[in-house]
């Protein structure tokens, strides 16, 4: 009789644990689906507003063909998402199914080892880590992530109607900025935000602080809050260029040397275009671009996604928001969502949920501590998408839909002037172009487009789009930004011996040359 009651009690514990896991699992699916689908609802609202007018501008046959293509496009997305979900589910089952079977036999046969109720309790612990501890860790990292210039009122160096220019102070003990050194202005990406360039300063993972901690006068341009600043909402590319010119004038006046303009992602393309206008002549003599999209038509990922999208719907109007004052801006959330859609087999809600479970499960099945880097990356992904001016979006839209001309002319014009890569050589601008070998957002073919027209110093980095600002911004890493590294044979083709300069090393070498010329 005792054994019967013991078995009953054991199976009741199993059922109770299984119910708890099922509830947590359903909650997880609901949470991750909700996070992914919120932009869909906004997108549908904008889509319906645009189509309410355009529907009547096309013939019934054109509408039928357009929506048929859109349906096929969506079906393909769903197919890729389903395949991606099955693949990660298979990966999870390969790890956990044998353990569940073993636990089942241990329970049935009352033998040593993890019992079925213990297995489900462990699964519940992992789900609690994903649904409770992980979000808390992401929220807690906010105080350590980014610049937090609000705590440093003295950092404000200059200001226009659209931007502020802040000086990045060293955070290494004993380091003092050398005000006589050649200065540098960082132009951050529009959509990704500036704070990714100060990822975790306290952990020595900050792109901007890599420069500042070498005593370099380091500045970063910050776009003002677009929702509170009408001048940002209506900003033109000409405004962007003139504001950059103003900042360069102020910085050159203070330090006595021409500026190095340093653009990350879209900020790199913007910096290049501003230089090519001629407005920065005499103010800027060197350029650093990191993972910057130079010719989006060469993109296999995002470019291919846009090519597959029916032409009728490949239009900025479907990502445009109208504010209460009537100004139109581009939705950063929807643009970020587009990046997810183009790789939906790797970023869909079920895929993300299962991968987070795999990540937080730990090798021994026990949830590991959540490290700061993982928390900061997720904080950035969740909170750092911002709406941007239509002018900046149109610049990128043209880059991803119109190829560079055979003579090197860009598809963008500013002040009515043609912008051509050959202007870099004519202006004798020293240019370091950095890219990520496995960057899926700005593939290296996209970043390296200038090489078809002019000679540019190139530095490849391992990993993807933000690795330069995160992994390699730590001074102790193999590909540190102030280091020199290079080529080896075999699988690591471009890395290992001493051929390439990181962006900080590039600027330090330029600064040394300037100092030597000044002395002579």
Quick rundown:
With 520 residues, the protein is an alpha/beta fold. 48% of the residues lie in helices and 13% in strands.
Features of this protein?
520 residues, 8-stranded mixed sheet, 3-stranded antiparallel sheet, 16 helices
Summarize the SSE layout with pairings.
Elements: H1 2-54, H2 60-108, H3 116-140, E1 156-159, E2 163-168, E3 184-187, H4 207-212, E4 218-223, H5 230-233, H6 237-255, E5 259-264, H7 266-276, E6 284-290, H8 302-308, E7 320-322, E8 328-330, H9 332-342, H10 344-347, H11 349-361, H12 372-383, E9 388-389, H13 390-401, E10 409-414, E11 417-420, H14 422-426, E12 430-436, H15 444-447, E13 457-461, E14 484-485, E15 500-501, H16 503-519
Parallel strand pairs: 3-4, 3-5, 5-6, 6-12, 12-13
Antiparallel strand pairs: 1-2, 2-4, 7-8, 8-9, 10-11, 14-15
Helix pairs in contact: 1-3, 1-11, 2-3, 2-11, 3-11, 3-12, 6-7
Structural write-up:
- By secondary structure, the chain is of the alpha/beta class.
- The protein has 2 domains: 195 residues, no CATH class; 279 residues, Alpha/Beta hydrolase fold, catalytic domain (Rossmann fold, 3-Layer(aba) Sandwich).
- Helix content is 48%, strand content 13%.
- It has 16 helices and 15 strands.
- The strands form 4 sheets. It has an 8-stranded mixed sheet with strand order 1-2-4-3-5-6-12-13, sandwiched between helices.
- α15 links the parallel β12 and β13.
- α1 crosses α3, α3 packs across α11 and α6 crosses α7.
- The longest helix has 53 residues.
């Amino acid at each position: 009789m005792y054994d019967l009651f013991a078995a009953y009690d054991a199976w009741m514990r199993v059922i109770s644990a299984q119910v708890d896991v099922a509830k947590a699992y359903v909650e997880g699916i609901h949470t991750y689906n909700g996070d992914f689908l919120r932009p869909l609802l906004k997108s549908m609202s904008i889509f319906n507003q645009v189509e309410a007018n355009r529907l009547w501008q096309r013939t019934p046959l054109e509408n039928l063909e357009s929506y048929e293509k859109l349906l096929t496009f969506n079906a393909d997305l769903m197919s890729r998402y389903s395949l991606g979900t099955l693949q990660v589910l298979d990966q999870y089952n390969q790890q956990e199914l044998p353990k569940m079977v073993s636990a089942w036999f241990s329970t049935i046969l009352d033998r040593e080892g993890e019992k079925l109720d213990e297995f489900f309790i462990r699964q519940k612990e992992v789900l609690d880590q994903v649904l409770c501890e992980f979000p808390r860790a992401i929220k807690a990292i906010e105080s350590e992530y980014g610049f937090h210039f609000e705590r440093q009122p003295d950092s404000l160096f200059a200001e226009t109607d659209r931007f502020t220019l802040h000086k990045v102070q060293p955070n290494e003990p004993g380091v003092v900025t050398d005000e006589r050194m050649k200065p540098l202005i960082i132009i951050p990406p529009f959509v990704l935000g500036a704070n990714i360039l100060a990822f975790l300063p306290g952990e020595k993972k900050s792109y901007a602080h890599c420069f500042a901690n070498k005593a370099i006068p380091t500045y970063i341009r910050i776009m003002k809050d677009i929702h509170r600043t009408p001048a940002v909402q209506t900003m033109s590319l000409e405004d962007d260029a003139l504001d950059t010119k103003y900042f360069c004038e102020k910085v050159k006046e203070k330090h006595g040397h021409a500026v190095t303009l340093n653009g990350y992602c879209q900020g790199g393309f913007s910096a290049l275009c501003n230089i090519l206008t001629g407005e920065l002549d005499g103010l800027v003599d060197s350029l650093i671009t990191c993972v910057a999209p130079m010719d989006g038509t060469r993109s296999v990922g995002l470019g291919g996604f846009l090519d597959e999208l029916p032409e009728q719907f490949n239009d900025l109007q479907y990502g445009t928001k109208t504010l209460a004052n009537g100004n139109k801006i581009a939705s950063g959330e929807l643009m970020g969502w587009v990046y997810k859609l183009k790789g939906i087999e790797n970023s869909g809600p079920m895929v993300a949920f299962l991968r987070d479970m795999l990540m937080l499960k730990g090798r021994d099945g026990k949830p590991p501590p959540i490290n700061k880097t993982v928390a900061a990356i997720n904080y950035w992904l969740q909170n750092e998408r911002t709406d941007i001016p239509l002018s900046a979006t149109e610049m990128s839209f043209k880059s991803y839909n119109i190829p560079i001309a055979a003579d090197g002319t860009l598809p963008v014009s500013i002040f009515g002037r043609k912008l051509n890569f050959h202007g870099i050589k004519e202006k004798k601008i020293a240019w370091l172009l950095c890219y990520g070998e496995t960057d899926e957002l700005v593939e290296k073919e996209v970043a390296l487009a200038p090489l078809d027209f002019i000679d540019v110093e190139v530095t490849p980095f391992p990993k993807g789009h933000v690795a330069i600002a995160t992994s390699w911004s730590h001074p102790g890493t193999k590909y540190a930004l102030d280091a020199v590294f290079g080529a080896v044979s075999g699988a690591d083709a471009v890395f290992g011996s001493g051929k390439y300069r990181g962006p900080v090393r590039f600027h330090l070498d330029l600064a040394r040359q300037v100092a030597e010329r000044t002395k002579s």
